[in-house]
């Protein structure tokens, strides 16, 4: 009986307390009219401007400020745009150390992979990587441009080879500028040393000094063997040793991009540069294509 009466007394107190609290809080809400949610929602709205022409005046002020401050600032010119090297390759006269440096032409391979024959092309070592001298790259690239220009000026056939992934557009663009041939697939062994069997069915034609076809020599061309290039430009000599060896057996001059791990004696005119960078290969291929284009235009100009 004692425990039962105590529990009943405590239960009445527990039920009575929240009832008084809820009543007091409800009374406070009714006495404070400033917390009305309806009035608060209307007061938070953005009031429309009284003057309807304020927007027009602000726009006119903005245009005036824009005209006044239009000439303030600086314009960086010339600026490096790597995407234009493929569509608009630079000419041999535009070769500079800054352009070669921006194209990553100076980066070689690890010092453990170097070929001692490239010691004269190496500027130094940076964090275990050989750095190619850009002076050597610029001078050898200018010499290669002179060779390409001379061959194109005399009507020679130039073959551009680049079989690595991503070099397709580079060799095609260079061949279009030079009016020559391109190869971006695997080189078929024997295409030069055994060209009569491999390239015997390829169509050949006789052209005049203006590169226009001359009819009537079909029978003579059938008895003649396949044409051989007068100059081969190889952008990745490491994967095309067979091609370079066949060119050496047939006394065909070659131009190649030689990295620090390649053998410079494989080609006739080496260009020490980074053969792993597509930006560098794009620059070299475009410059050589422009040199061939200049030689071809010079020949056509003399013929006309």
What does the model show?
With about 300 residues, the protein is an alpha/beta fold. It has a domain at about 95-190 and about 230-304: Rossmann fold, CATH 3.40.50. The chain has eleven helices and ten strands. The chain has helices at about 1-30, 35-45, 55-70, 85, 95-100, 135-155, 170-180, 195-200, 220-225, 240-250, 280-304, and strands spanning about 105-110, 120-125, 130, 160, 180-185, 205, 215, 230-235, 255-260, 270. It has a five-stranded parallel beta sheet, with helices on both faces. A hairpin with a 5-residue loop joins strand 6 and strand 7 (about 215). Helix 7 runs parallel beside helix 11. The longest helix is centred in the first third of the chain and has 30 residues, at about 1-30. Mean pLDDT is about 80; it is low at about 20-30 and about 35-45.
Provide keyphrases for this structure.
10 strands, ribonucleoprotein, globular, Ribosomal_uS2, Ribosomal_uS2_CS, 304 residues, alpha/beta, structural constituent of ribosome, Rossmann fold
Topology of helices and strands:
Blueprint: H1 2-31, H2 37-43, H3 54-68, H4 84-87, H5 97-102, E1 107-110, E2 122-126, E3 129-132, H6 134-153, E4 158-161, H7 168-178, E5 181-183, H8 195-198, E6 206-207, E7 213-214, H9 218-223, E8 231-234, H10 241-249, E9 254-258, E10 269-272, H11 278-303
Parallel strand pairs: 4-5, 4-8, 8-9, 9-10
Antiparallel strand pairs: 1-3, 2-3, 6-7
Helix pairs in contact: 6-11, 7-11
